[in-house]
Design brief:
Layout (H helix, E strand, L loop, with lengths): L1 E2 L6 E2 L8 H11 L4 H10 L5 H23 L11 H5 L10
Antiparallel strand pairs: 1-2
Amino acid sequence: GLDAGGGVVRVSGGRPPPELQGLKRLVEDVFRDDVTGGFRDYCLEEPGWAPAVAFLDETDRGGWQLIQALVDCHTTEALGRVTAQGLLELPWLKPGGR
């Protein structure tokens, strides 16, 4: 199941989630920073990730949009475009957003 206790999302069941470096490699190298498309589709195919995918899909896939914005921060194109205020204005983080 999904445990969002303490502000940390944990997914149980199926295979354990890859460690952080594995996720970084998947997102950046395999899916070329495409969190909302390719990486989400990959996660959808993993039964153990189903609760996390459902959670991030809430509010019109707003969780994926948030993660995409955070991943975009490492690109030069995002300099000055991705701001803390902008992140807080994403639908998934707005009160009542999810």
